[in-house]
Design goal:
Helix content: 40-55%
Bound molecules: zinc ion
Strand content: 15-25%
Number of domains: 3
Number of helices: 15
Largest sheet: 5 strands, mixed
Radius of gyration: 25 Å
Structural class: alpha+beta
């Protein structure tokens, strides 16, 4: 059995022990507990910890958050932050019979040996791909994620037809957060949307830097919640949240939309008896944002055929698939925003109900069409 040293276990020991000894969770609803747990990410250096630490900090949100944003590490930890609260990290020993123990002498009334299971000492870490994908989906972004040469910082996608970069950063230290903001302002040369677990590190100098770049900051804690079905949801429709980054439509846009709809109508009539009809490929690649390989799998054909269909679509619309995706997202968000405004006027002050209306009212069917489009 391989034992692996994880430095974070040591650095966390004092704070974990403090949290363990002082934890006294108050009864509350599931949602109110879950809505504030993004802050946990800013307390775990390296974003890696044993499951007991994550469970203690996330509380009731642990299981859904584990599924949504964490991944299991391949190696076992070598040190155990003391679960009895003595303030030390104890060596984990693998005995000749294969059993795992740590020893703690702090409390003479308890046995020295702490028996452990492999699951208890297998660390879990934040999966940037899972976290980025979950936020990409819930915010209705397009484009691709891209690593940035900054610590714990990732571009998770882009917003609207303007392709405004959406950046996620997770920092334990305020100085690092400010450095990330400063570098983003210097590197991106334009507007961007910055997400972080909380606004704790976004102090006045950071806000000044962001304002300089006409960028906006959104703390996940107050914008993205965990729903009862253990999935993420936004407190308001993304089109409302990010409205300042959505281009206003003018007469030229209206004319372009009319042209796209006309071309889409033509496309639907093309080769309907073929394997992978162009209309279906459009639906899978543009509305459902599938890759060519995924589309080929769905249409049960070879990927090269999808490449040909994608080229046909791009020629037909004189737009790239990526531009069509942005266009489709834009239309969808515009519709959600309009509906959200309409509902807010009807139900002033009923935020929760408004959200439920937003959640339930715009369900796509299996083909990605909104109710009005069916
Ligand atoms: Zn101990």
């Amino acid at each position: 059995m391989k034992l692996c040293y994880h430095a974070t276990d040591v650095t966390q020991t004092a704070s974990v022990t403090h949290s363990l000894s002082s934890s006294n969770p108050q009864p509350s609803t599931l949602n109110s507990q879950l809505s504030t747990k993004w802050s946990v990410l800013e307390t775990i250096p390296g974003l890696i910890a044993l499951p007991g630490v994550w469970r203690q900090r996330f509380g009731a949100a642990f299981e859904p958050m584990k599924d949504l944003i964490l991944r299991e590490c391949p190696n076992l930890a070598q040190l155990l932050p003391c679960p009895r609260g003595c303030g030390l990290a104890h060596d984990i020993i693998c005995r000749p019979d294969g059993s795992l123990i740590a020893t703690c002498d702090a409390d003479p009334s308890q046995p020295r040996d702490i028996l452990l299971t492999p699951a208890e000492i297998t660390p879990w870490e934040v999966s940037w791909s899972k976290l980025g994908h979950a936020l990409f989906e819930v915010l209705g972004l397009h484009g691709k994620s891209a690593p940035l040469p900054l610590p714990n910082t990732l571009q998770i996608g882009a917003w609207s037809a303007d392709g405004v970069p959406v950046i996620l950063t997770v920092q334990v230290c305020g100085a690092t957060f400010r450095r990330v903001v400063a570098e983003l302002v210097a590197r991106l040369h334009g507007r961007f949307i910055l997400l972080a677990p909380t606004s704790y590190h976004c102090d006045a100098p950071c806000q000044e830097l962001l304002a300089h770049a006409r960028a906006a900051f959104f703390p996940l804690e107050t914008t993205v919640l965990l729903s009862d079905n253990r999935r993420l949801r936004t407190t308001r429709p993304p089109g409302e949240l990010l409205a300042q980054f959505t281009p206003r439509w003018n007469e030229t846009d209206e004319a372009e939309a009319a042209q796209v709809f006309r071309l889409f109508g033509e496309l639907l009539g093309m080769g309907t008896d073929l394997v992978a009809p162009p209309g279906r490929v459009f639906d899978l690649m543009v509305f459902k944002k599938m890759t060519k390989a995924e589309t080929a799998l769905e249409c049960r054909c070879v990927a090269s055929l999808i490449t040909r269909r994608a080229a046909l679509i791009e020629r037909h619309f004189a737009m790239s698939i990526e531009r069509l995706r942005a266009f489709a997202s834009d239309l969808k968000e515009r519709q959600r925003t309009v509906k959200g405004d309409r509902y807010a006027r009807k139900k002033q002050g009923a935020a929760r109900e408004e959200l439920e209306q937003y959640d339930d009212g715009d369900k796509e069917d299996d083909n990605g069409y909104l109710p009005e489009e069916r």
